[in-house]
Design a protein that fits this description.
The chain is of the alpha+beta class. Helix content is 15%, strand content 34%.
């Protein structure tokens, strides 16, 4: 017995000594930390590619032959694209990071900067051919062996040439003065728009069609001032583009619509192919006398190319050049009854300038444009490739003004005849988001009316409305949603072939519904999700064969009755992740697993039973894997971040406690790897809403965009606590106190090594608000960090989210801020004051670090100023970090690194008794901005 104890103690001491030898993470480790990205697999499942990407520096491309394990590593290789025959890989090779950085510092001109190149790899031998100074490389949609890439002129770096190359025959051709180009899907045709070079008298504006592999060329149009990008139909035998003699750059161009057609008559040896190019819409054509085809009239074909869709816009006059800008007033006018205020219009200005009414040309009657929508804001939806008679559009203009503060998504719904343009009203003020079924037999939507929450269908043939989910007897929304509004649906419809059924998940299980409700709903997972507290959701590992062009006209992937369906699994109790399978036509789980990992980017080879995915957890980086079938014969291909083993990392666990009001809660607790239970450790508490489901998520040490980095603080001797929060309408601040502070006390009781006198809190945005509230509510914390906090809900209520231009009122009445009332509702003002930290600032005793940036597009940055000034008024220790021209979360890496240092210095001072840095003690004067940062420590 004594010997057993001795051995156990020896093992424990050895583990502690090993951990003690490891270093703590510091701010110099970030750049080298890696991630795996851009995974691809050949259609036959024989070759895999992925990229290993450091946070800063040169990436590496890895190509693997899966059967043998043979690999090719390409320094600085970009994202690889495989040809559909699995014979070739093509990719760019980026210029060396250090050389590019040095050139930027030296302020070299663009033509003097280090240049990217490209490469072609023959997969059977891994033979690599480099293409010097190549800026881009592309394949057709079907990824045949034809490639196109840009090369620079050896004598004039500003000129780019387009090279076409057939990888299998090694044929190549060089095209000069290319402005735009487009492959057809099959890759046997290429349409090129050439732009005249003023230095080349033989060049001209023209559109040329090339055939492969013959390289026969046909000039489709020439000498127009403007040509749009050409657009092929799905089969590649039709091509459309816009042309204009109008060189006006201030008004819009008046364009003609050109159509190329390839017609084959007869079969086999008797087949005769003819080609034609014609103008099907003249440049002076107008709709309703005021709408014309312009350079913004994007073109796209229906699936069978019976129709050509386009946009039409009001014909704009040329800009008045007589206006004297210096004598012209500039102002924004706000109208009370116009839904789009100037900030909204400004945020959408580019799209508003190019907005068009949706229209169609039926190719059986060319020369006529049929307008389909009454407004440029209408959203047009198609079914069955847009070759049928009807399409659907929604119109919410009548409700946009109220939507400023009302969470209801009201809209009017119409069916429009694609042959005539006539519309039929289907619904007025529908509270939901309607969509067409794949073949166009039904409109489905989730009703957000409080008295009829559920999934409904409208049968287009006879107008029959059916509540299809009522018979299931369970809700189809998140039953734990705690916002003061109608809870949204947990899913969207996944349709079967021929619109026979569709799948919808409730919070736990997967259901199959008959859109006419003639047969009862079928629970394919047989209630196991709700019974075992497990969430099942439909997913599909298979690559879609549907192009973006077909997706645009309503073609979508459907489920066959004989399919085996894959479900994503999340165990709400253990927080484990996994997958399951069920039969599409028969209830019952066929296979099922969960594991202590997170899974990312799962994808199946198109023609082989091989899947690729990334897998990791808190202690293991997300590496690249492949498997066969349902996660069998797993192979690990990458081993990123080996340096992690040299650092004191951390251990994560799921913790439980009860809030002050008795609500059971979950959270995460991260302890240092070298934890000594006999010592006392400071605790960092980070929160937003709920994070316990991320128990098995890998978190990189990285410079902070706004929040404390969890593994960084754990490595440096902090216990890190991440509590879940649940909310009560009208009292978000007190809800945070109820969950966070009870959790902090519970952790101190459950884990005596936590120093209850050295606890800090930090949050960003909504978490920043809760931080600001908590420091007015309790003196439990020794330091607090609030990023982009709302300090005053009464002023923030009418504030603008500058990124979108939207007023913030709805967020308080129905959204995340959870007040549930307006300022003017009975008791509303009292709730806004109760939940506004600024009205309780006199109670603060906690030193507070605020970050609020002057280009914040979500929370008006004057909120941070208001809170800081209130703290300052009471002489409470407070600091405000204002990063110039920065967003809600920092986007520039240099600023992220700066914030990371300041966060750690601030909390180290108050929670670990480290010296105070100069920026906290004496500040950084504006006269030394950008050259002095105040990171050095000042000893009292």
């Amino acid at each position: 017995m004594r010997r057993t104890i001795t051995i156990a103690m020896t093992l424990i001491l050895s583990a502690l000594q090993l951990a003690a030898q490891k270093r703590a993470l510091d701010h110099d480790v970030y750049d080298s930390w890696q991630s795996v990205s851009s995974t691809s697999i050949t259609d036959d499942g024989k070759y895999l590619s992925y990229s290993i990407v450091p946070q800063e520096g040169d990436r590496e491309l890895v190509i693997v032959e899966i059967a043998s394990g043979k690999e090719l590593r390409v320094p600085r290789g970009g994202v690889a694209s495989f040809t559909s025959d699995g014979q070739w890989a093509v990719f760019t090779i980026r210029a060396p990071f250090k050389e590019t950085r040095a050139a930027k510092i030296a302020k070299k001109k663009s033509d003097e900067m280090p240049k990217d190149s490209a490469a072609i790899v023959r997969l059977s031998t891994f033979e690599l051919t480099k293409l010097p100074e190549t800026s881009s490389i592309s394949l057709p949609v079907d990824k045949k062996s034809i490639i196109a890439y840009n090369v620079s002129d050896s004598t004039d770096k500003s000129k780019k040439y387009k090279v076409l190359r057939d990888l299998n025959s090694n044929f190549s051709d060089t095209l000069r003065n290319v402005d735009k180009y487009e492959f057809n899907k099959k890759g046997d045709k290429l349409a090129v728009v050439y732009k005249k070079d003023k230095k080349d008298s033989l060049s001209r504006n023209q559109v040329v069609l090339y055939q492969f592999p013959s390289m026969i060329s046909t000039v489709l149009s020439q000498d127009q001032k403007y040509y749009s990008s050409p657009v092929f139909n799905e089969d590649g035998d039709k091509l459309a583009f816009l042309a204009s003699l109008d060189s006006n750059s201030t008004g819009n161009k008046h364009c003609s619509v050109m159509l190329y057609e390839e017609i084959v008559k007869g079969k086999g040896k008797k087949a005769v192919k003819t080609e034609s190019i014609r103008e099907i819409i003249a440049p002076d054509y107008t709709v309703d006398g005021k709408l014309c085809v312009t350079e913004n009239s994007s073109l796209y074909f229906s699936k069978a190319a019976t129709r050509l869709f386009l946009g039409i816009a009001e014909c704009q006059p040329e800009k008045d050049t007589t206006i004297i800008e210096s004598e012209t007033a500039k102002l924004d006018i706000w109208n009370w009854d116009i839904a789009m205020t100037p900030p909204i219009q400004k945020s959408r200005l580019s799209s508003l300038k190019s907005a068009t009414y949706q229209a169609v040309i039926n190719l059986s009657e060319p020369g006529r444009i049929i307008r389909l929508t009454p407004s440029v804001e209408n959203r047009l939806s198609f079914a069955d490739g847009a070759d049928g008679e009807l399409a659907m559009y929604t119109d919410d203009r009548a409700y946009q003004l109220d939507a400023t503060w009302d969470s209801n998504s009201f809209t009017d719904v119409y069916l429009v005849n694609l042959n005539t343009g006539e519309s039929k009203t289907v619904f007025t003020k529908l509270n939901g988001n309607p969509s067409l079924s794949p073949t166009g037999k039904y409109i489905s939507w989730y009703s957000e009316n409080e008295d009829e929450l559920g999934w409904f269908t409208y049968r287009i043939a006879d107008g029959r409305i059916t509540n299809v989910s009522a018979a299931a007897g369970v809700p189809f929304y998140d039953e734990e949603d705690d916002h003061p509004s109608v809870p949204p649906s947990t899913d969207r419809p996944h349709w079967y072939s021929n619109d026979e059924y569709f799948l919808i998940s409730d919070k736990y299980d997967i259901w199959r519904f008959d859109p006419d409700a003639k047969t009862a709903p079928v629970n394919l997972t047989q209630g196991q999700g709700r019974r075992d507290n497990v969430q099942f959701s439909y997913t599909d590992f298979n690559k879609s064969d549907i192009s973006m062009a077909l997706s645009r006209v309503g073609v979508s992937k459907t489920i066959n009755k004989n399919d085996k369906l894959t479900l994503k699994v999340f165990d709400r109790t253990s927080k484990e992740n996994g997958y399951a399978t069920v039969n599409a036509s028969k209830p019952g789980i066929l296979s099922y697993f969960t594991d202590k990992y997170e899974f990312q980017s799962v994808s199946k080879a198109r023609n082989a039973d091989i899947i690729t995915y990334k897998k990791g957890n808190f202690n293991q980086p997300c590496d690249q894997y492949t498997a066969t079938g349902f996660f069998s014969n797993e192979k690990k291909w990458s081993s990123i971040n080996p340096q992690q083993a040299d650092y004191n990392w951390g251990k994560i666990q799921l913790v439980h406690w009860k809030a002050y009001d008795g609500t059971p809660l979950d959270g995460l607790l991260i302890t240092p790897e070298d934890l000594d239970p006999d010592k006392k450790y400071p605790m960092m508490i980070y929160f937003y809403e709920k994070y316990s489901e991320t128990l098995y998520q890998y978190r990189q040490p990285a410079p902070s965009a706004s929040t404390v980095n969890l593994p960084f603080f754990a490595s440096r001797g902090y216990v890190v606590f991440v509590p879940d929060i649940v909310y009560t309408d009208g009292h978000p601040g007190e809800s945070a106190y109820n969950c966070i502070c009870s959790g902090a006390e519970a952790m101190c009781e459950q884990f005596p090594f936590i120093n209850k006198d050295k606890m800090g809190i930090q949050g960003q945005s909504w978490g920043g608000y809760q931080t600001a509230y908590l420091v007015t509510r309790t003196d439990m914390f020794a330091a607090a960090g609030a990023g982009a906090p709302v300090g005053n809900m009464t002023s923030a209520y009418g504030g603008i989210r500058w990124e979108s231009g939207m007023v913030r009122a709805m967020q308080y009445e129905h959204g995340q801020s959870r007040i549930g009332k307006s300022l003017w509702d009975e008791g509303g003002l009292d709730l806004y004051i109760e939940n506004s930290p600024i009205f309780h600032t006199q109670n603060v005793t906690t030193p507070t670090l605020i970050m609020h940036n002057d280009a914040d597009g979500a929370v008006p940055w004057y909120q941070g100023i208001e809170f800081f000034m209130a703290l300052r008024r009471f002489h409470h220790p407070a600091w405000l970090l204002q990063y110039n021209d920065e967003a809600h979360n920092l986007t520039q890496r240099k600023n992220r690194k700066d914030l990371s240092i300041r966060l750690s210095q601030f909390f180290d001072h108050y929670l670990k008794d480290e010296p105070m840095p100069a920026w906290m003690k004496t500040g950084v004067p504006m006269t030394r901005k950008g050259e002095y940062f105040g990171f050095e420590y000042i000893n009292d």
